[in-house]
Amino acid sequence: MTDQQSSSSKTIENKEQEEQKNQKNENIKMPEIKPGMTVKVYQRIKETDAKGNPKERVQVFEGIVIACKHGHQAGATFTVRKIAVGNVGVEKIFPIDCPTIKKVEIVKEYKVKKAKLYFLRNYKKKLKEKKRQEK
After folding, report:
1. Helix (H, G, I), strand (E, B) or coil at 103
2. Please, is 94 exposed, middle or buried when counting C-beta atoms within 10 Å of its C-beta (0-12, 13-18, 19+)?
3. Where is 89: in which H helix or E strand?
4. 61: buried, middle or exposed (CB in 10 Å: 19+, 13-18, 0-12)?
5. Can you give the pLDDT of all 135 residues of the chain as single tens digits?
6. 62 phi and psi angles, rounded to 5 deg
7. How far apart are CA 62 and CA 43, in angstroms?
8. What φ, ψ does residue 5 adopt, rounded to 5°?
9. What is the residue-wise DSSP string for 15-70?
10. In a 10 Å sphere around its CB, with 0-12 CB exposed, 13-18 middle and 19+ buried, how is residue 78 labelled?
11. What is the pTM assigned to this prediction?
């Protein structure tokens, strides 16, 4: 009987851990992200300092969304591109269900006619800003 009790206590602990993870993910409400939006992605980064102590900080990545793939499935992603120092383009692919993403903030929205804005990699095209309604 002790084996059954120990196995049942392990499954209860596993269920509690899963519930805590789900609660953390439910607290983060992802806005509707579409190509042509300028977004700020706040991502938690874990680092260690010189002494080996773990440290956590929030890094902000601001850029234009050039692609959204797989809708709202488990493996859905969105690609954000920004122009860094020295006119170097930097792209990051973020999974939508990533636990390290703290929040996503929409800054601007542009009118676009394509679902994938890969043409922005080759040249800078002027995009017209869409007027957003404040909620």
Report:
1. strand
2. buried
3. strand 88-95
4. middle
5. 455 555 555 566 666 656 655 555 455 678 899 999 999 999 999 999 888 999 999 999 999 999 999 988 889 999 999 999 988 999 999 999 999 999 999 999 999 999 999 999 987 777 888 876 665
6. -110, 130
7. 11
8. -65, -40
9. HHHHHHHHHHHHHS------TTEEEEEEEEEEEE-TT--EEEEEEEEEEEEEEEES
10. buried
11. 0.73
Take residue 25 and report the two structure tokens written for it: 């993910």
Q: Contact 118/66 with Cβ under 8 angstroms? A: yes
Tens digits of per-residue pLDDT, 6-37? 555 556 666 665 665 555 545 567 889 999 99
Tokens of 32: 């509707």
